[in-house]
Design a protein that fits this description.
Number of strands: 12
Number of helices: 21
Strand order of the largest sheet: 6-9-10-3-11-12
Radius of gyration: 34 Å
Distance between the termini: 71 Å
Structural class: alpha/beta
Strand content: 5-15%
Length: 593
């Protein structure tokens, strides 16, 4: 067998934020945990399969007796009796098999449902900083391709392997009971089957892991190109994106080709090894029968058992292949549990709701700071506008204030307690971030708004929608606030989706809000009206508005100008205009547009 090398992924190409993948020991521990949790149901399934396999073994045993009786001379009634017995055992096997498969499938669904729920709980609990660093491709691949592969393995591969293993052991046992000397021939394929299977399993784990990784890279390239289609078109990046997608497809092709190469060696060898024992049993058993050592019925029975072994062994090998795919995907799914926390919560309670930033720095990559020594104090109820050129670090500063990113150096405190020391569930209730990127979940308008606060009443939801100017259009939807929206349902416009996100924010009622161009998808006049409405609704709360429309800065208590990762100007609108610096230039440019 030629030694073809498994495709490798360049770790550097995956970035420092690459999500972890569990090792084989962790995957085995996960499997053992699931088996222990579902032990009783699993024993029931195994018991039904054992009974079905035993019923299937009755046929060759009865045939052996019938052949020997016919050779010795018997009556028609005797033959008919055995015929009815054979039919009875076939029917019994079919009934038992039906209940065994049904129980197995139901249990498989339960196990997969548990895995899926645990996985989604882990995914939704990931630190936002980790999600942003990891990118969409890897996470999307784990939640789609890998979940689907594990689903297939749990629903089909595991039951089929269970059936095949039980049938194989019982068939071998039955053959040995009938005639150990003839049954020895059933082992004729082992010298081929064992080394071929070991050779395959030693290489397939790494091969399928690389294949899953290649899918993640491919998904990332495609999803990024689709999500950024307008940017790609505006900047004429089509050729560059096609090159990246082609590279991802090439990596996927190499990974698929490697695992296909493994199977192209395994399957022909195992197929020959399956049928070799049948031929050896007939030759060896025929010689023993000619010497009077065994009867013709014994040879026929063992030969039939040899034929019966073909299907379970073939199925076992085939589904072991699928199990390898499922195990590789399970390693990626359970790897989510190994993502380290980006903070350690303490029980320290803030003395007030003021946010104080001291000499804060932040770097997405070590040694490449995006923010440089930020100093800022936000008093409760203050409205701060953050302005500056694109790429200056405004959004990164907003994420530090929202507690999404811990600072690389310095501190970001709320009431004297570092933001990253606050328990996440409490922090998200106290400080909220809304960006221009909004998602409408599949469900009613009411359900979407209630994401801000689960226990909110319909009246509270309506008030939140009214506060952001969305109640009129929401009430006029085909089924009012109960209209199903999201993917595959009623499609909301980007502006409507943005208003839904703001309604969630109003309902959540945090003491500090970070609005990162949260009204950018709404037309300027509507955005102006919405912001004035929010000013009344959010009275008494600290608001940090990152904006490119400078009327937001005009209405703010203070304006912070961020340039090159530093706050270069800080003061009221009038103070900064009088200063005649960067803000004054921005204001003049914006006013003349």
């Amino acid at each position: 067998m030629a030694a073809e090398t498994a495709p490798r992924q360049d770790p550097a190409s995956l970035g420092d934020g690459k999500l972890p993948v569990s090792d084989q020991a962790q995957v085995k521990r996960e499997a053992v945990r699931l088996i222990k949790q579902h032990r009783a149901a699993l024993l029931k399934v195994v018991g039904l399969f054992v009974l079905a396999a035993v019923a299937g073994l009755a046929g060759p045993a009865l045939l052996r007796v019938l052949i020997d009786d016919i050779s010795a001379g018997t009556t028609l009634e005797h033959v008919m009796l055995f015929g009815f017995l054979l039919i009875g055992f076939v029917l019994l096997q079919a009934v038992l098999q039906r209940f065994a498969v049904a129980s197995s499938m139901i249990q498989g669904e339960k196990v997969f449902a548990q895995l899926r729920e645990e996985f989604m709980e882990e995914v939704t609990s990931l630190p936002l900083s980790t999600v942003e660093k990891a990118g969409t491709g890897d996470l999307v691949s784990r939640t789609t391709n890998d979940v689907e592969a594990v689903s297939f393995a749990v629903r089909f591969a595991v039951p089929q392997i269970l059936v095949s293993a039980v049938t194989l052991l019982l068939t071998l046992g039955a053959a040995l009971l009938i005639s150990p000397i003839v049954a020895v021939a059933l082992l004729a394929g082992v010298p081929l089957l064992v080394p071929a299977t070991r050779w395959y399993l030693n290489r397939s784990t790494a091969g399928y892991a690389a294949e899953r990784e290649a899918y993640a890279v491919m998904n990332g390239a495609i999803s990024e190109s689709i999500e950024g289609a307008r940017t790609v078109d505006a900047l004429s990046l089509g050729a560059q994106r096609r090159k990246k997608i082609d590279a991802g497809l090439a990596g996927g092709f190499r990974a698929e080709r490697y695992t296909l190469w493994l199977r192209s060696w395994l399957f022909p060898i195992t197929e020959f090894a399956f049928w070799l024992p049948v031929a050896v049993v007939l030759v060896w058993g025929g010689w023993l029968a000619s010497q009077g050592i065994v009867t013709a019925g014994v040879v026929a029975a063992v030969a039939l058992y040899a034929v019966q072994l073909v299907d379970p062994v073939n199925t076992l090998i085939m589904w072991l292949d699928e199990l390898q795919v499922g195990a590789a995907s399970l390693a990626r799914i359970t790897g989510i549990k190994e993502v380290p926390a980006d903070r350690s919560a303490t029980d320290a309670e803030p003395v007030d709701q003021d946010i104080v930033i001291r000499n804060a720095r932040y770097a997405y990559r070590p040694g490449h700071d995006v923010l440089h020594g930020i100093d800022l104090v936000l008093r409760r109820g203050e409205r701060l506008a953050v302005v500056g050129p694109s790429g200056a670090g405004k959004s990164t500063l907003g994420r530090l204030i929202a507690g999404i990113h811990p600072p690389s150096a310095g501190s970001v405190m709320v009431g004297g307690v570092p933001l990253v020391d606050r328990p996440l569930d409490e922090l998200r209730r106290e400080v909220a971030l809304v960006t221009q990127e909004h998602h409408v979940f599949v469900g009613s308008v009411v359900d979407n708004v209630r994401l801000g606060r689960d226990e909110a009443t319909v009246d509270e939801v309506e008030k939140a929608l009214a506060d952001v100017g969305a109640l009129d259009w929401a009430a006029n939807l085909p089924e009012g606030l109960e209209t199903e929206v999201g993917s595959g349902a009623y499609a909301l416009t980007p502006a409507q989706a943005q208003e839904i996100a703001l309604a969630r924010l109003v309902l959540a009622d945090p003491h500090t809000l970070v609005l990162d161009e949260a009204t950018s998808l709404i037309d300027p006049q509507a955005a102006r009206d919405l912001e004035q409405s929010l000013n009344a609704v959010l009275a008494g709360r600290t608001v940090v508005a990152i904006a490119h429309r400078l009327h937001t800065a005009h209405d703010a208590d203070r304006v912070a100008v961020v340039e090159g990762g530093r706050i270069t100007e800080l003061g009221s609108h009038e103070e900064l205009l009088a200063l005649g610096g960067s803000y004054a230039s921005l204001w003049d440019s914006w006013r003349t547009e």
